[in-house]
Amino acid sequence: MSSVLHAIVEPGFFGSAQVHAALAITGAAALLCGVIGVFTVVRGQSFAGHALSDINATGGSAAFLAGISPVWGYVAISVAAAGAMEAIGIDRRRGRDIATGIVLVVGFGLAALFLFWDTTLSGASNATNEVLFGSIWTLSPGTVPIVIALGAGAITLLAVIYRPLLLSSVSSELAAARGVSVRIVGALYLLALAAAVALTCVAIGAILSTGLLIGPAAGALHLSRRPWSAMASATAIALAASWLGILLAYDSYYWPPVGNGWPVSFFIVVLVFLFYAGARIRAARG
Amino acid sequence: MTQIAPVSADASPGTAPALAVEHVGAVLGGRQVLHDVSFALGAGELAGLIGSNGAGKTTLLRVILGLQAQSVGVVRIGGQAPGRRASGVGYVPQKFELDPDLPVRARDLVALGIDGNRFGIPLPSRRRRELVQAMLRAVDAERFADARVGELSGGEQQRVLIAHALIQRPRVLLLDEPLASLDLRSEHEVVALLARLAREQRIAVLISAHDVNPLLPAMDRVVYLAGGRAAVGRTDEVIRAEVLSELYGHHVDVLHLHGRVIVVAGPGGEQGSDLTLAHAHGTDLEVSP
Amino acid sequence: MVNAWTVGGIVAVIAGLVGFFVVLRGSAFAAHAVPNGSFAGAAGAVWLNINVLAGLGAFALLGAAGIGWLGHRDRQDVATALTLVLLLGLGALFLSFTAESAPAAYSLLFGEILGVSNNQLVPTLGLAAGCVALIAFLYRPLLLSSVLSELGEVRGIPRQALELAFLACIALATTMTVPVVGTTLIFSLMIGAPAAARSFAGTPGRALVLSVAIAVAIVWLAIAAAYQLDLPVGFFVGVLSGAAYAIGRAWAAWRGSSARRSARLPASDGGPNDPASAGAFGGS
Lengths: 286, 289, 284
What we know:
The complex is a heterotrimer. Chain A is mostly helical. Chain A has a single domain, classed as Orthogonal Bundle (ABC transporter involved in vitamin B12 uptake, BtuC). In chain A, 80% of the residues lie in helices and 0% in strands. Chain A has 14 helices and no strands. In chain A, helix 3 runs parallel beside helix 6, helix 3 (46-54) crosses helix 11 and helix 4 runs parallel beside helix 6. By secondary structure, chain B is α/β, with parallel strands linked by helices. Chain B has seven helices and 13 strands. Chain B has helices at 57-65, 106-115, 126-138, 154-166, 184-201, 235-238, 241-248, and strands at residues 19-28, 31-41, 46-50, 72-77, 89-92, 172-175, 204-209, 221-226, 229-233, 252-257, 260-265, 278-279, 286-287. Chain B has an eight-stranded mixed β-sheet with strand order 5-6-7-3-8-9-13-12, sandwiched between helices. In chain B, strands 2-1-4 form a three-stranded antiparallel β-sheet, with helices on one face. Chain B is globular. Chain C has eleven helices and no strands. In chain C, helix 2 (28-48) crosses helix 8 (159-181) and helix 6 (118-147) runs antiparallel to helix 8 (159-181). Classes of the chains: A mainly alpha, B alpha/beta, C mainly alpha. Chains in contact: A-B, A-C, B-C. The interface between A and C is large, with 59 and 53 residues.
């Protein structure tokens, strides 16, 4: 039995402190993404969810330039971008798509400037990569409290607006008829999304932020149409994919072609996609 | 009143009705949505396709358009079965939303009715321009021909879409709930316009609606759908308590109030599982099981 | 420098053309995902030591096909997001296999338009011609289905095939433009210029021409400014695109409010024989 286990789990996996930290962080991120992702998919705001993570390059590079922790840059730019998307107007589906795109365009423009200054003024050529891809393995202990506070804040906000948000996500007309201010609920939801995306970007990088936000929720919505069970399945899928992905990434240190391991984001994204495909096939069968 | 001739499979195009629906049944997601629906419309006739939500109206329209396959039965346009590309049928979709930012004028949308499905860039031509102008005049849309379609009112958008559908001279015009989001006045105008177009252009017009009243003054014929079955005939033949009770499978009352008709469910309601084909009252009215 | 002007102009024409339909159809996410996902192809090509253009093209088409295929029975935005992260995950894998990552990543994102070489001109021109031809071929069905997809369907235009063909246009535009201007720049041009143009011009033809003109103006202005001030081109393109969009929105709002004002005067919003309201929408 133990030899089988050793074939799957390379030695040292359960003893490594780095692995423990990675498992905890992705666990928290998976929980948050599972809950917020279901709303994001139902409301058709996947692009906004992804754009908020991409735009963190702007915040990260600005923070790098100012010499402060990138987390603050992420948080500031996410909230600002969410506010801009809301201000431009996202009531119509096509208009929303363009509004998100424009915010992203301006964000990219600024990022080009900040990254240019990062490399020319402070000579930090690695800033680009760090900002763009993040890394599960390199989260500094100082940022952990901020990440926890952000996550708790996002979850609390979501719990407060849960019922009006659900109603207005299903039908904005119904919600308006019940006296819900659809616009304010939408803005608060975007704020929660911005916080969640900022923290997942810090913890697991921009690629995984979108992957864990959209993939598990979209898969779960094929399996269940009830909000609670959809959130539960989304969280379960996100957890399974990220923990299995970490395990595989750890194992891959012994794989070709190079001895430094395959990126964990690759494994998690592929696993998320496989779960999604499985859910769709199951739903199609009946 | 116009008579519907019984349609046979080998009717020649010259004498065939513009639209003939023969014993059509349709299944959607494993559910039987239409049961043995039959009716025919001649050129110049206007008919209402009446039924509540889920009665099968949109499915029937999609079958006629060839966008959805029927499980049994035949649809003929001018005596011929339509292909996938139902060029003999014009269509105005249900509950559309046009973006006010669209850089497309009413005139452009009508022109796309001529050749919107062809590849390549359209070459400017005088004939094309005149055709569009004539069509805009026919639907009273010249006033707002150069405004963006997304900025027009609901009634004006209906006119533009009707012109878009009619410019290729179809034999049949289908409209899916065109009155749903209109105010009373535009409702009136659109119905009057459709009645005039049916007469002048010699086309068969089929209008789906959940309320029969706005169509009462213009309708030559009604196709009343309930539970996927249809009752067909003149308005005063179909909108009657006996006929609709049989169609619904339970008792309904038909009330007349200041020239308006109100259909209400009556007390009780035995399920009409043992309905049989009935030729009622010696007319061409049919209630199919 | 001359090369930068020429290539910048070509790229802007393509972005203005393809972007016109991107904005009309609300496909901004796809226009972002296809170029960004193609980055994985470039990374893979660097790792395997093959032609970068081939890698880019293959992955751009792969992304387009993925979005079209997955979007068939799910929300388009979900399909786009999933395709994108899958490609980015692959890109991260390929990058980890190669040593030279940081500078390569920056240039793929923001391009090196000021360093365009002569032998990049020919493939760019060839791909541009193909892209223009494809858009011209699909012009009318794309326009009709962008206005109201049901109308296109009734006229026998298959919705999914048309969507796939359009995504292929984006992929083609991506392949030719990413190596010279980077993924973010092409995205900026595809969104900003057409979104501004549709506010000013009310007919499809004029909006299309204006979209191309604005895109070319943005690129040339940005190159000049970048050269003068020694700052990245991407910065100017992003900011100018945003500014063009903002001006367009302001113009549309002003036009809308003045149209409403003059429409209110004749005490009618359009009776059948009401010549007074004829000029209310006029304008274009």
